[in-house]
Amino acid sequence: MSRQSNRSAPLYGIRCRRWALRPHQTGAPTRNRHQDDTRRRKRRANLCATLKCFLVASGSGAGLWAALALGTGWLLQGAVQGAISVLDQHAGGALLITAGLVASWLGWKLWQKSRFRRLADIPHITPEELIAALRSDRPPLLLDLRGATMIAETGPLPVPGTSPGAIVAEHDALLKAVGNWPRDRLIVTLCACPENAGAIQAARHLLDAGYRAARPLQGGYEAWMAVSAANAESPGEAIKP
What we know:
Elements: H1 2-75, H2 77-89, H3 91-119, H4 127-134, E1 141-144, H5 148-154, E2 166-168, H6 174-178, E3 187-190, H7 197-208, E4 214-216, H8 220-228
Parallel strand pairs: 1-2, 1-3, 3-4
């Protein structure tokens, strides 16, 4: 009996110690679970509050716009009805006025196109002719009218090395860009505008100012870039700016 009691005593002590440690071991996870549950409840409450605020704000905005539209319609109902009645009474006249406005707009566009054709009816110079003239003993003055933004993006205009190079010019300062250039020597204007409009306008302005040999470049900037590389001074050599 003494042996059994001696053997069971340590076991009983161990069991007691294990039992005593169980509350301490399970207490921390219980607190953590309570904290996690509290955090989840707070997040759900915040989400619900945010959703409620969003719904309230959206509903208020929609109601405000609807009320504004309804109020405007109610205030202007007399004017709208009056305008409708006037249109009913004078439908034929309104159609005639609309047709007259459309015809006037089309006529103005046709007049502008005809005016541009008359303005563009001046001698042009081809890129091949310009390259040959730039390599001659008396190279022409080449005016670059592309604009500062495009020149900054694409770089200076490539021309043969023997020429004086292209001069960046603006329409408001053409005579300043020309300077003391002889009035009988060739001046070529170049731009990147649709239908070469800027170069034609500049050449016409120079012709009116007494420069008898002002010519716009046929095809503009794109034509010049396409032909200049093929007409370089030697095969495989591009024209350098």
